[in-house]
Fold this protein.
Amino acid sequence: MQVEISRRRFLQGSVALSVVGGVGISSENLFSSGTESSHKIPESITTKTGSGDAKLVPTLCEMCVNKCAAIARVENGVVTKLDPNPMFPKSKNMLCPRGNAGIQALYDPDRLKYPMIRVGKKGEGKFKRVTWDEAYDAILNGTDKFKGLKQILEEEKDNRSTFVFCAGEGMAEHTFKTFYTGFGSANWLNHASLCLRTVVSGYGVTLGAYPQADLDNAEYIIMAGANRAEAIVTPDTMDFFKRTKGRGAKLICIDPRFTNTAAKADKWLAIKPGTDLAFVLALTYVVLTEELYDKEYVNKYFKGFEDYKKHILSNSYTPEWAETITGIKKEDIYTIARDFMKHAPKAVYYPGRRSTFSKNDFQLRRAMAIFQALGGGIDSRGGLVFGKKLPLKGHEVVAPMYAQAQGVDVDRKKGGHGYADCAVVSGGGSWLAFRNRVLEGRNPYPARGMFVYKHNPIMNMPNRAKTEKFMKNLDLTVVIDTMPSDTAMFADVLLPECTYLERTDPVKTFGGVEPAIAVRNKVIEPMFETKPVIEILRGLTEKISKPLFEITKKYDEDVQEDIADRGEEAVYAEFDLTIPFKHSQEELNEHAVSGYPGAAEALKKYGVYYPEREKYFKQISLNEYQYYPENARYYSVTGGKPKTNSGKVECNLKSLARKGIDPMPTWHDEYEYKVPEGKFRLLTGRHAQFTQSGTSNNAMLHDLIHENYIWINKRVAKQKSIEFGDLVEVSSKAGTIRIKAYPTEKIAPDQVFFIHGFGEESEALTWAYRSGGNDNAVIEDVLEPVYGGAAMHETNVEIRKV
Amino acid sequence: MARYGMALDYKNCINCKACEVACKEENGVLLGADKHRIWVGVKEIEGEWPNLSIASSTFVPSQCQHCENAPCQEVCPTQATYYDENGVVRVDSDKCILCSYCMVACPYDARYVDDRTMTVDKCTFCSDTRLARGEVTTACQATCPTKVRVFGDLDDPNSEISELLRTREHFVLKDHIGTKPKLFYLV
């Protein structure tokens, strides 16, 4: 206990020290607290909660994307515990291991504490501590080591698109995007193309929305390539696993690996990676030939049904055909198709929300959505649901037009829609396609600089070597983050954001069967010299807005003419980048919920608001609460009608055909699963204790899993004399890593697997540095052809015992 | 005065380890694989891929059983291990001499050494944190995503745990050795 308090006090005390200033800190130890530099697990990092006075602050977790409601316990200025906030219908009174470990993100000794600028070579990780103003100045004017915004935009004649903006998921991502919009680049590259772009879009074009699943009431669930026991999603994980194993819901788990979800299943079928599309097409074949579908729903809400039926039948997508492709027995396919429709509409083919695994992922999602709709389980209790969303009021943004800023791609100007590498470029872009185009000199203009917010592309994008090269070539990289990640090491200017427990974020509305509005309230004041991103951008835009406008004036003829007409002041008002950041987050939040009487107060007090909460919310048992009574829940909001423009389930999308995409989900021979003799298909995935690389340095989570292990089939391991804990080398065309082995029967003989998020190379990360292996150092850059998603399961690797 | 016990709907457990982390943060438990008050027991699956036995793969959350006949209490030469007024098996660290008899005697392997105090430590049902604050719950119960645990007073016929034990089939671990555990696994 004594040691823990003193360590915390040291961290707290550092705030006072830095305010006084003049503390000489050399570039070597800027990332460390100065007291702990060894790589062993510290013996005292947890703090016992007390029984005396405590301040309780309702907030929202940011250890992953779920945004579960938490109550922070603050004792003597120290956050001693994070507990579930039972008032939020989405997270329903729970916090997962990561949520509980949020305290360690706050008190991580390796946190970024001060603004810093690069003094060593790019990527070397040598930085100098500066003031905020010096950091902003370096971004504008550069230093002797790197060029600033002004020089670069002069050189590029105000082509704003030479700056790339990328962001990870988070409640303040929108704040950062507001800056991107004002800056005027065409290149917004967020996490989507490395994440769930294809699933969202596949459901979007087919059903008109990416629906939720009512796992609280579904009777029959197919979970394919979604691992809800380990990749926790709220409320799905909680709703579901209290009802599995014959206790209310039947679960069919389709996954190449035996996951914790498989352990809870009634049936687990080890499908060959990347062949789910064939499985769904065969299910569809059975349902169409045996006429098991909901005829009333199909008549009312399907468009192109006859085309699709003909397509499925004429291609003979039979269970017999699928058996050889998927490895799933035809009898199982017949049974599952029949059982699903027997339980429909209270049956769910679970949409999932994972990364793109295979090249056919978009078509797989379309096929899944259509199969679900055949049972009529759309916008209905126990099926897929659209839910209701409580609207919020918007706020002022600045979106100037810069004539010199080029588009995403010249092909688009010629009537195309992409980088030419993929058929559609959506709002989030295709990170992989853009990176490779720039590296290969195929982009019409260079990438000169990048603003990175809460994103770690070096770790999270396939082919690490190429991402490093991309970042090394940039003239100016500004990274806003809480941690000295691998990506942060490539920064020219590092701006330290405070952690989620030290800031109020934009209020958010959560749609669903039980909609609510929730807010992340600041628990304690930001430590060291860290700031929330809104304040960082306030300072930055005050510094750069006018000087950048001067450059626009020089090169932008439209602006010149406009100034001649209306005067400079009137024109600048539309280019003033500071406007969106003038108000505090608290003020913006109050405005956002001002349409709901009492909401602002409720959000401060409880962290959660929805109309009638006082009437509806009540505890029904030790662990369970009622949020909405059954008859007030939004199981159906359209009466079953899809949300597409046509109001129908879109089976045959001719608009896709014009872009060279199959208008109906179609199997191609090239999708077949093939692994050359002696090689292994590399699979990656998630688990409950870490969130990608974002939590990689969390001491508490490292206590649960110190490093990742590669799963290799037991019998294969025996042949290769690989035993548990042996170091093996994994190599592909993209690179080579070393990782310890876990021989197990939970994986096929020609596949290997390890979890993502380990093996960082940043020496500033005490726990994460070279702990385990990084999947993206060996995953090859394979582009999903429709949205340019990174296809993560298309790499074959070689394994060698070291 | 109460007689606290816990019922575990263990089939809900997905082995996410939220309980372990909540316990460590609540009670200031040391980090390290051998330092834990609660854990999830996992059995390696039986069979050969792809013919695996789903039934053989189980997750069994566990912690000190707070036995009414606790062998750890019986063997303690200094009376450091005692039953508190709520029937919770506790350790008085001032009296503990780290002879470790209790660690050997415990049939459930529920005790470990706290390197800071060099005494034996174990689950306290959050007696000196939550219970001391008047909350009748434990950190592990409160945080669980799939709501495995129900904590309560076994002497109170109206408590949720009493109701559960009246209506749901259940078992205790190593019933035959007569330790009378107060952790009940619901079937």
